[in-house]
Amino acid sequence: MLDSLIAFISQGADVSAAAGHTPQAAVAAVLCAALINFFS
Questions:
Q1: CA geometry: angle at 1 spanning 37 and 11, to 5°?
Q2: CA atoms lying within 13 Å on the CB side of residue 16
Q3: pTM (global) more than 0.70
Q4: Which helix (H) or strand (E) holds 40?
Q5: Per-residue pLDDT tens over the stretch 2-39
Q6: How far apart (Å, rounded) are the C-alpha atoms in residues 23 and 13?
Q7: How far is residue 17's CA from residue 5's CA, in Å, rounded to a whole number?
């Protein structure tokens, strides 16, 4: 659980960096990852 969450957060950080360091993108990526984690 924790390992996958850390992986999702690091993926979200990569996505936000690629998008130009937008905080909204990072937050959205982490929230989506958390939802996917809870429902899977």
A1: 60
A2: 17
A3: no
A4: none
A5: 777 777 777 766 766 666 666 777 778 778 888 888 88
A6: 9
A7: 18
